[in-house]
Amino acid sequence: MSEPVLRVEGLSVVFDHPLGKVQAVDDISFALAAGERFGLAGESGSGKSTLALAILRMIKPPGRIEAGEVKLGNTGLADLDDEGMRALRLARIALVPQGSMNSLNPVLRIGGQIADAFADHGLRLSRGEEEQRIDALLIRVGLPGSVARMYPHELSGGMKQRACIAIATCLRPRVIIADEPTSALDVVVQRQVMATLARAQQQLGAAVILIGHDMGLMAQFVDRLGVMYAGRLVEVAPIAEIITRARHPYTRALIAALPSLETRGALAGIPGLAPLLRDLPPGCAFHPRCTLATERCRIEKPLLRCVDGAEVACHLA
Amino acid sequence: MVPKWPAISRDAVAPQIEAIDVSKRFFGGLGRESTLALAGLSLAIDAEAPSIIAVVGESGSGKTTLARLLLGLAEPTGGEVRYRGTDLRKLTREERRAFRRDVQAVFQDPYGVYNPFYRIDHVLWTPVRRFKLAPSRAEATELIGEALRGVGLQPEEILGRFPHQLSGGQRQRVMVARALLLRPKLIVADEPVSMVDASLRATILSSLRKLTDERGISILYITHDLATAFQVSDSILVLYQGHLVEAGATERIIAAPQHPYTQLLISAIPRTHVARDWLVAEDDTRPGGATLTAEGCCFADRCPHAAFDCLSAPPALYRTAPRRAVACVQFRNHPALPARALGEVLHFTPVVPGAPCDEPFEHSRQPG
Description:
The complex is a heterodimer.
Chain A: E1 6-17, E2 20-32, E3 37-41, H1 48-55, E4 63-72, E5 75-76, H2 82-88, E6 93-96, H3 110-120, H4 127-140, H5 157-168, E7 175-179, H6 187-204, E8 207-212, H7 215-221, E9 224-229, E10 232-238, H8 239-245, H9 249-256, H10 295-299, E11 305-307, E12 310-312
Parallel strand pairs in A: 3-8, 3-9, 6-7, 7-8
Antiparallel strand pairs in A: 1-2, 1-4, 4-5, 9-10, 10-12, 11-12
Helix pairs in contact in A: 5-6
Chain B: E1 17-26, E2 35-45, E3 52-56, H1 63-70, E4 78-83, E5 86-87, H2 93-102, E6 103-106, H3 121-130, H4 137-150, H5 155-158, H6 168-181, E7 186-190, H7 198-215, E8 218-223, H8 226-232, E9 235-240, E10 243-249, H9 250-255, H10 260-267, H11 309-312, E11 318-321, E12 324-326, H12 342-346
Parallel strand pairs in B: 3-8, 3-9, 6-7, 7-8
Antiparallel strand pairs in B: 1-2, 1-4, 4-5, 9-10, 10-12, 11-12
Helix pairs in contact in B: 3-6, 4-6, 6-7
């Protein structure tokens, strides 16, 4: 493996709350290789979106980064001032936020919104150059160049999401974080958008972090998957390993919760509810919902450790 | 446990709810084109043979329009919706009240339907009061408790709480319990699990299945998700741009879809296979077929099999098997199915163990 493009070390995010400290992201470490597609999966509230925001230093009060560091290439993001961080976002690490297709400015044409990104990052282009670059960008995401002169309301959901990918990739970032980029789209459009993201990523040689809860989508898109539960990574492994022999009972439950198209009656939920982050059970946070839990799971918090090729935080793995 | 509810006399002749060639067109403003949301669909839901019918399609396919028409929330621009044989627009006060009770709705958003200032009890007590479901407070409490237990909730965990104190899955199940209180014949569930976490979907869907199997309530399950439709439904209707493209027994449609659109829908679902064939297959989903004509098949522009015949006339519904119908000219050597006869394909005869059935399948699922 070459030098990682992104390295997250012991990252922790807390939210200060009158009822106590809420640990939304708890001591997360992982590294992203150049051109790699990494998935982050988990139920809602597991901290996956918060982790994405923390990587970009976009956590707002009452949340704060309590510990850890993020290194993008050789740059430690914690050492940058706000202006330096602003310049780096989008240019070197871009986010396609959740529901981003609804975040397009309704009164600006798509081309204008891409031009904004250029101007904001100090790119001085002649009008002709700018038009040319916007055109090339739109073509890269499979949209006709005429979309540049259109307003968001003139586009379908899938087209808007592609326009967002165009904006996210306009400065050729090394890392693209896509937070549930297709959650509001139909399956057919979802596949088109994911193919667009895959093509854009390959052309740029960028790494992608895909955040989501659909294990089917993860199985088909990412190279390596991290599974989060209650703010912690509980399993990190190559996707084929996860699909064929997931080590953590929670990962297995997530896969089983995906309705099958082969056998009927195989629909299984995950029993119980996700725990409250400010009131986590002792030991393994998953033990109240785990069918295999032992006495040790109730007392001792499992740490992420290597088990032939995979990292798992489970006493039983 | 047998519910101690009094039997309601039924008019055995007419189906409970029947849509006869209903269509809905939304008219644009001056000079704008109108949009056909639903084109002539006939569907009968018979209380004698409860089943779950899934209506599947992408956004804009007309599935929510169909739900709104059946619930009487929108008026059809063509055809009619009948309740016990009477057009919904011509119901008397008394009949309308019975309709409002027999046909219940569960909507997509379990967050938006609650008033945050009222306790959960409010949504359960309102129908009890309005429809005078119980003669005394004690019996009403008993009734509410039973409805909640019917969807797998413990009344003591729910009552007295405010909406924000419950999870999305719990709130959605309270909505099903509210529908259940009125002992409906039909529940129209419009995307009931699309806003609920995957881990909770199974619980809600299996509680819907239990209502059909144990209480004889028919359910129209409206969804964009073929996989959950496969898990709970007995039959499936696939809509595309307001047109019925395929209908029939769930297992057969999922195992061997016949309409090119259904085939596309099923192939677009990302699976947890080790084989990564999902993105590779993307190119053939691109529009690139023929140009749409007003009178031709609505799917011709995206169809890999589009031929000249597809552009000249809309395809008829062909009955390719006793329990299957598909609107595609590739199957024109099969007998055409009159639109009104769709019920035969959707199979509304009571499921009697051992009764002859052309494509038998087992209900292997465990209610739980």
